[in-house]
Amino acid sequence: ISTRDWSSDVCSSDLTARREAALALQLDPNLAEAHAALGMTHYLERDYALAEKSYQSALAANPQLALARMWYGLLLAGMGRFEAAEAQSRKGAELEPLWFMQFQIWGNICQHQGNFSRAAELLARAAALRSELYVSNLGSRVTVEYRLGHTESAVNLARQVRANFDVRPRGSADPQAIYVLLKTGHAAEAEEYARQVMARLAPDRKS
């Protein structure tokens, strides 16, 4: 489950976030938000043990901090502890029932767990809560619909991902859409789409 799409909205850089969180904790060791931010920097560095410790400290300081619940659930899912991850996501959604990202992450957790029916419900709810298109949500739903055997819906969603090619963030929406198009008998369309993605990546690789 990728966080690079949206973690930049919270942390301008891992180093800056760690420095600012550490400074905040010097001023107030019980500041839950600072513990949570520190946990995210550890998570992005794949230091899961320290990330878990920071999230636990955040929730000890403020059990009602939905952001910490969401991020902790994400961490637990990455460690394969899906039952505990769902518990954190469920609590986070109870605390912030109108925050689309709570349901996006919860849906992704269910997706990776293989609970595709539940993932479809949660991802649809996430989409309904956001006024602007979130392409990463479309990408997740492409895969979920395909896994549920809803071929027509999966293909339509894949085409929506491509139709919104310039909308960011994208996460892994493009490879998910290309994969489903390829697996559902639309090889020429998938290959053309893949070339489009590679052409967009080419300038980034030269820089």
Describe the secondary-structure layout.
Blueprint: H1 4-7, H2 14-27, H3 32-44, H4 48-61, H5 66-78, H6 82-95, H7 100-113, H8 116-129, H9 135-147, H10 151-163, H11 173-183, H12 187-206
Helix pairs in contact: 2-3, 3-4, 3-5, 4-5, 5-6, 5-7, 6-7, 7-8, 8-9, 9-10, 9-11, 10-11, 11-12
Structural summary, described in words:
The two termini are 27 Å apart. This protein has helices at residues 4-7, 14-27, 32-44, 48-61, 66-78, 82-95, 100-113, 116-129, 135-147, 151-163, 173-183, 187-206. It is mostly helical and 207 residues long. The longest helix has 20 residues, at 187-206. Helix content is 76%, strand content 0%.
Keywords:
207 residues, disordered N terminus, mainly alpha
Assign a percent range to the helix content: over 70%
Low-confidence parts: 1-12
Shape category: elongated
Q: Tell me the structural class.
A: mainly alpha
Main sheet makeup: none
Distance between the termini: 27 Å
In what range is the share of β-strand residues? under 5%
Mean pLDDT: 90
